[in-house]
Amino acid sequence: QHTIRSMAEDEQMLFGTAMRYQPFSDDSGYRELIKNEFNAVTIENEMKMELVMPERGKYDFSQADEMVQFADENGLQVRGHTLVWERIPWWLDQGNFTRDEITNLLKEYVQTTVKQYQGRIYAWDVVNEAFDNKGNLKENFWLQHIGSDYIELAFRWAKEADPDALLFYNDYENEVPSAKTEATIKWLSELRQKGVPIDGIGMQMHLDIANDFHVDQVQNVMNQMEQEGFLVHITELDIKLQHSGEDLETKQQLQAERYAEIMKVCLQQATCDSFTVWGAADPYSWIGFTEEPGASVAYPLLFDDKLKRKPAYKAIKAIF
Ligand code: XIL
Question: What EC numbers are recorded for this enzyme (predicted)?
Answer without folding.
Answer: 3.2.1.8
